[in-house]
Amino acid sequence: MSLNNAMTADFLRSAYGGESMAHMRYLIWGEAAEKDGYPNIGRLFKGVAYAELCHAKNHFTVLKDQVGDNTVAAGAVFGHTNIVENLQGAINGELHEINQMYPVYLETAKFQNEKDAQRSFHYALEAEKIHAKLFQDAQDSAKSGKDIGSETIYVCPVCGFTELGDNVEKCPVCGVSKDKFQAF
Ligand SMILES: [Fe+2]
Ligand SMILES: [Fe+2]
Predict the structure, then answer these.
(1) Which ligand is nearest to the CA of 48?
(2) Which of 40, 85, 99, 176 has its CA 20 to 30 A from that of 109?
């Protein structure tokens, strides 16, 4: 792991902050979903929270030689009301990462030839695309008062790739074998 450019380092710190908050927010919303009678959407939130932890860990690890204190500014979603609105918050956060944040961070890391940061941003971007879709499908169910199905949710511990049900034999993003995946 190495890091030579201040702007890529700033973007890693911001992404670390954003992922850390997403992780916490999804645990809170997951607990609320379970209490409201949507145990499978609760599990989805918990599985995706774990994926965001993996992203935060990747960014933090790329920054490991940047020893010191920093103030971190990161996009954050607020609101804790009902399941449909909480899912909208989740969708909005994921779409921000997909359409604004990670493409710009990734291009910067490419421009600055920061290979480790590129990988970390690429992994997150690919997973967030799936998360947005999973949350959208969950919201469609919740709008008609229904929970999602009871399929196991699998998350790749390396890149945060997330799947609903048992569809892949190894991670399509980073190649890690399925037996390493976390199940929720
Ligand atoms: Fe995500
Ligand atoms: Fe992966």
Answers:
(1) 1
(2) 176
